[in-house]
Amino acid sequence: MRYRKISCTLTEYSAAIRLPEPSNGCSIDEDTAAELRDCCRELQLRDELRVVTVAGSGNVFAVGRLRAPAEVASAPMPERLRWQVEMAVAGALAALPMPTVAVLNGDAIAHGLELALAADLRVASDTAHLGVGNMAECGFPYDGATQRLLRLVGTGLARDMLFTGRTLTAQEALNAGLVSRIAPAAQLDDVAAGLTAEIAAAAPIAGRYVKEAVVNSMDLTLSQGLRLEADLSVILQSTEDRAEGLRSFEEKRAPRFGGR
Amino acid sequence: MTDSFATVIYEKQGGVAHLSLNRPAQLNAYSVAMRDDFAEMLDAVADDSEVRSALITGQGRAFCAGADLTEFGTAPSQAIARSVRWQRDVWGQLIGLDKPIVAAVHGYCIGSGVEIALLADVRIAAADTVFAMPELQLGMIPAAGGSQTLPANAGPSVALDLLLTGRRFDADHALRCGLISRVVAPDELFQAGWDIAHRLAALPPAVAAATRRALREGPELPTADALRLEQRLAATLMDYVHAPETG
After folding, report:
1. Which domains does chain A have, with CATH numbers?
2. Phi then psi dihedrals of residue A190, to 5 deg
3. Topology (CATH) of B2-201
4. What integer is the mean pLDDT of A14-43?
């Protein structure tokens, strides 16, 4: 898939999005945001995809948060809101139906962290720092930080990070559950590749359904969530993959899932 | 008093109902028969006013090695499978019970084993317990609440890591993730479980029930409503605070 700012590499079961290096301390400008949304829209339709990764270039994941140009900042509300919508990328990543992994090869700060928060899993280099950005420098968050962060780490740490602009080390992020694995920088690619291979080896429809059940668990009562889980679970009983999963268990071999 | 069902052992001791999964040769794989016995016993636990807390354990080498896969694919149709899920709603019985529940897990705690534990109030594990959520490697997803209870306890990110990869993890990892709250030496597990269960059984039943209710319903309410629920529960329990020996 061809883009100017980002790149997206497709292999049999996976897609790897690569973010550009920051320019003037900012990784995501209007063009990059538009490309990321287009890219996610394309990936959304690819039923064969079992996992999507997002990583940065060089030794940065993504940093900075673009401030609105002066003419937008002084314009009436409708124009200001239009600009906010043009800068939004996290929602497009979050809307992907297959599991997604943010590979934090370096710092994820401000808008960069907001994008990472929209992935299902985060793995980080042990040298990476994570923060929502200092509000005085980076402005008010506009791509989900005030909502997704506290759902992931709880309101105590989220408030600390939002009010003080505090950045976490990778180890602190691991302890807080903000990332699920960390690795030395030199081994991060291998760890991420291992993780995506594990995800791609599991039954793909089940992978999408478990994502749906877990993501929606945040917004449903327990009894509603259990209904969703039970219904998805029953639908899976009609798949060839479930039959293959049980057969492979019986025959003590690795399953071969076709996503059907 | 001890009642022996085929697949789950039931005994009552000093206000504690002990339910012990009892298919040791199958590492306590959760079967249809076990579900039915479990459901019947949970009715007894709910109805018996002498019972003030429940302790769930497993006999033999494992707490529970997951669902009994040999029975899978035997439902006549998906429509029937779906209605049976709600006819024998063991998970709903555990959630709705107004008595506190302790789960003490050891050996293998896999799939449904993890999900049963996640429906308990206090969860402890022997230090050598092996955990995993392997459903996706079998083409299915958790069906005993795991897709809801695991993210509620471990956070969505860690929950998805465990679910999507199906990787095995140890008791220390389970502790860090919030799946369990204590790790104990293997030979002290059951005693520790009984101690906690007796302690919970000593609570005034109305206090235990109100705590369960606050924790069950509170998280689903807007904060202001949840705080009002707490106030109302506290108001109904004023007697116990002033005379804790009653009840």
Report:
1. 7-200 (3.90.226.10), 203-250 (1.10.12)
2. -65, -40
3. 2-enoyl-CoA Hydratase; Chain A, domain 1 (3.90.226)
4. 97
Stated pTM of the model: 0.87
Could you tell me what percent of chain B has a pLDDT over 90? 79
Q: Residues of A with CB below 8 A from B138's CB?
A: 203, 242, 245-246, 248-249, 255
Q: Which residues in B lie closer than 8 A to residue A250 (C-beta atoms)?
A: 69
Laid out side by side, the sheet with B169-170 consists of B108-110, B130-132, B169-170
How far apart are the CA of B109 and the nearest CA of chain A, in angstroms?
Answer: 18
For chain A, the average pLDDT equals 94
Domain boundaries, chain B: 2-201, 205-242
Confidence of residue B47 (pLDDT cuts 50, 70, 90): very high
Give the pLDDT confidence score for residue B241 in this predicted structure: 59
Token pair in block for residue B68: 């009994």
pLDDT value, residue A156 = 86
